[in-house]
Amino acid sequence: xxxxxxxxxxxxxxxxxxxxxxxxxxxxxxxxxxxxxxxxxxxxxxxxxxxxxxxxxxxxxxxxxxxxxxxxxxxxxxxxxxxxxxxxxxxxxxxxxxxxxxxxxxxxxxxxxxxxxxxxxxxxxxxxxxxxxxxxxxxxxxxxxxxxxxxxxxxxxxxxxxxxxxxxxxxxxxxxxxxxxxxxxxxxxxxxxxxxxxxxxxxxxxxxxxxxxxxxxxxxxxxxxxxxxxxxxxxxxxxxxxxxxxxxxxxxxxxxxxxxxxxxxxxxxxxxxxxxxxxxxxxxxxxxxxxxxxxxxxxxxxxxxxxxxxxxxxxxxxxxxxxxxxxxxxxxxxxxxxxxxxxxxxxxxxxxxxxxxxxxxxxxxxxxxxxxxxxxxxxxxxxxxxxxxxxxxxxxxxxxxxxxxxxxxxxxxxxxxxxxxxxxxxxxxxxxxxxxxxxxxxxxxxxxxxxxxxxxxxxxxxxxxxxxxxxxxxxxxxxxxxxxxxxxxxxxxxxxxxxxxxxxxxxxxxxxxxxxxxxxxxxxxxxxxxxxxxxxxxxxxxxxxxxxxxxxxxxxxxxxxxxxxxxxxxxxxxxxxxxxxxxxxxxxxxxxxxxxxxxxxxxxxxxxxxxxxxxxxxxxxxxxxxxxxxxxxxxxxxxxxxxxxxxxxxxxxxxxxxxxxxxxxxxxxxxxxxxxxxxxxxxxxxxxxxxxxxxxxxxxxxxxxxxxxxxxxxxxxxxxxxxxxxxxxxxxxxxxxxxxxxxxxxxxxxxxxxxxxxxxxxxxxxxxxxxxxxxxxxxxxxxxxxxxxxxxxxxxxxxx
Length: 800
Prior knowledge:
The protein is α+β, with helices and mostly antiparallel strands. Strands 7-8-9-10-11-12-18-17-14 form a nine-stranded antiparallel sheet, with no helix packed on it. It is globular and about 85 Å long.
């Protein structure tokens, strides 16, 4: 056994010695040294799993992150023996294992290095707390960039940073505050045009060093558990994202209304105030689908109760709101009030459902209700019980649940002490292992309950804390942010990072949770959030009495805010299609420019620009009083959304930023579906689907996905997938369409709005039949608008 003396307070670091023997079994390869075992598992041609047993015995192979439907599908693989290494190969990868020390080098089939161990796997005994600290260090490649790790409030490129995962209630966090709420031990590397990912599936406190301690080394380690990680090859970063989501699971489609606008506050009460808020939205013609109720709707902050004073008739209130097109989402925290007259507390104590300390005493701590106990969500029986508690809320008409304080957060203590015990699905562990998945499993149980009791409707869940894979059942938000321009920048960073970390359904508290934005900051935040998958205003307004609704800043700002919320509703078919792509293929909804143009080094450190889906490029207005902004555009041609000015990509361009606009571009060649303006998603059937088509001379593919917007018929094939292909030239516009149709829409035709046609339109043919254009079809903004049957397959416009 090789050893290395370390100055670390944890003692000596140990390294594997030479391989003594090896064996193959199915798609597993095991390599044995004097004391350690390396297991290499070929999951797919581009996905390899590595596990190390430091003492020669593997721990239970169990994960709360990986999808139950993960299929292992290596097409072809094998092993070769060389003098100094073993080589495991697939059709696209080569994995070399050094005979003398188990160090790994991974190359593509042509021998180009993708990822390479520095010191590789090693460990040390954790003398203070037991178990082992497990490490892996990799060489940093030339000009390598790193991305991922969830909600970290720092630059997108993590090169030079050290970060950790230990879910924390980070009230009023700032730039570079670490750790925060979510625990996503997954990162990307990008060098020489090659993208890859590493998912370190370990629920203990994990730390990642991207060249901070030593510029030439990237390390990750955990203070317990096993060195167990998945290597994911791209080489395109978006392919890595899709493969990671394949491992950790894809979401179900949300109900369409969840992609509308959400209004929240700490707190809207009593019920008369909630009715006033709803009425203001409708009277002012500002679209909105969702109103949230924070902790004051409960009786003394007791979960699953209603305040008799503030909400004497919750079912009646929710019924009336539904008639106006509003859905209600309520908060549920994990803390259960210690109260012998409280049925849920009684039942939990009787059945031993609450967490206990090492000496057997109940884990007690103060949160909003006062002294509380906390369910052990790592116990499957407790998760089943917790799920059953949502029957009453669902029957009252509640359509969504907001899980908060589930890091878990405890006043004064911060979180649970490490000696708290957990079932961990039969393993019985300390809080050291269970901390990072506590909120994850709370939200899983919550989602299961809401799904069960809301059938046939789809549920909605939002959670503050989670682990990798939570996208299978929940959305997230960026936590207790601050009303500042820096936090507006952090909102775009964090939502991009969450998206490429598997959690696309994310947003920030618009305007900031803490403090009071002015009208300009709030308006600019609304503009950015229009293009985030979750669009929710939320504020701790009860601290000052300040109101933070779209009309709170005066009529000039209200007009612009209403314009952008309305635009959000017009873009719902595009957003819903982008969500379907995410749910079907695992591609992130928000895409940093490095993920769409990784071969362009100018994109690697871009933070202000990102893409929503395939067609829209967004850059927020980031400073008070900003009159213009420089925006980097990737290669290709881009239309400025507000006036159809055409820009050549591969350069930085400058656009004006009056209050009523923000930098927004459309990729040339795209088809962007849009709805007519609406006040809420259930207002009326859509009788006309608009297709905004942007001329381009490169072959461009676009998609429109449709289903009922709720229920589960789409899982039985009741949906439409419509694929568009634009293949125009300098003298001819051509749009072709192919489709799978198994859902009957309310509309029978499309209104085509054609942008940027570079020649005078002559003959127009729709499926070979001529269509006459007159002056009414040529709009003042330079677009051409005409109506075609929904079933069209080919539109051709010849130059006059």
